[in-house]
Specification:
- The protein is mostly helical.
- The protein is built from 15 helices and no strands.
- The chain has helices spanning about 5-20, 25-65, 75, 85-95, 95-105, 110-125, 125-135, 140-155, 160-165, 175-190, 205-220, 225-235, 245-260, 265-280, 285-300.
- The radius of gyration is 24 Å and the shape is elongated.
């Protein structure tokens, strides 16, 4: 699950703190980086667990209505499609999921208000009403409703974002990228395979991805003076004092990757960091990163210092 995109995001967060204070050794920030990856993997399961808590809230609400002093017919004979969702039932009995939640002591118990708010947003949504009104039920529909919930309600929730920040500083701004993996997880679930359905491993390729992360972080720190000089040489036409600090860091990472990983095509590296600039800064930032990085690549290529695959 920890792929190159998430690795770049986490390294950006780590070097932001490092270059602001520079009070940690390289070994210390390497250790922090891998701890960040562990916490990101925790968030993957923690957000999946959110679906069970929402389902339980809705089931409890149905039971409360049944026990009203004067229950209506709809209270006594409620639509149970949502609370009997087959994807949720699979998740509830899954051994790997339950073991991870228990071992890492993950819980939403202290955030009942968030569960309530999200549940009410779901119940009031048009796609939920359409789902429970459908007379036929099928497994794909049960997975589909949760894809919509994660995309349309959970992902943009400010209350959820605040709750995650309260629970761990390592989860700040991570929900969107982790939810993209949750959507892929829902897609790969198969009917009748609940207890033993496998989740994404922590790393797609443990050795290769760990090496990539460690080498990239090391290059950004150890080659900082060299990289800074390359940036300064190409940024003369930009009002450098007005360039955001985060933009400089994104560019340093991009240059470090160009210099350190000859097997990664330049266009791939450039596209990844342009997208990173768009996500974590501004449209103008992406133009800056693109322009300066292109100039640096051309410079070191002319100097015969570029050992690189230029394109596929």
């Amino acid at each position: 699950m920890i792929n190159r995109i998430l690795i770049r995001i986490k390294i950006l967060q780590i070097i932001y703190a490092y270059f602001k204070c520079e009070d940690k050794t390289l070994e210390a920030i390497k250790k922090e980086m891998f701890h960040c990856f562990d916490k990101a993997y925790e968030l993957y399961f923690h957000l999946l667990a959110l679906s069970l808590n929402i389902t339980k809230f809705c089931a409890d609400r149905i039971e409360l209505r049944k026990n009203k002093f004067r229950p209506s017919e709809s209270d006594l004979y409620p639509n149970l499609r949502f609370v009997e969702n087959r994807f949720i039932k699979q998740l509830t009995v899954n051994m790997e999921f339950n073991d991870f939640i228990r071992k890492n002591k993950l819980s939403w118990a202290n955030h009942a208000d968030v569960i309530k708010e999200l549940s009410e947003q779901i119940i009031n949504s048009d796609f939920y009403k359409e789902y429970i009104a459908n007379r036929t039920t099928d497994y794909e529909g049960d997975k589909g409703i949760w894809r919509k919930i994660f995309r349309r309600i959970i992902a943009p929730s400010k209350s959820l974002e605040e709750a995650l920040e309260e629970q761990s500083i390592y989860w700040t701004n991570d929900a969107e990228v982790i939810i993209s993996f949750i959507l892929k997880t829902i897609n790969k679930f198969e009917e009748g395979n609940g207890r033993f359905q496998q989740f994404f491993p922590k790393y797609y390729d443990s050795i290769e991805d760990k090496n990539f992360a460690e080498k990239l972080l090391t290059a950004v720190i150890n080659r900082n003076s060299e990289i800074t000089q390359l940036i300064d040489n190409q940024a003369k036409n930009w009002e450098i004092e007005r360039i955001a600090f985060i933009d400089i860091l994104i560019l340093k990472m991009a240059v470090a990757e160009v210099l350190t990983f000859p097997v990664i095509p330049i266009n791939v590296t450039m596209n990844e960091y342009i997208e990173l600039a768009k996500e974590y800064s501004t449209e103008k930032s992406s133009i800056f990163v693109n322009g300066v990085l292109d100039g640096i690549v051309n410079q070191i290529d002319k100097e015969k210092k570029l050992i690189k695959v230029k394109s596929f």
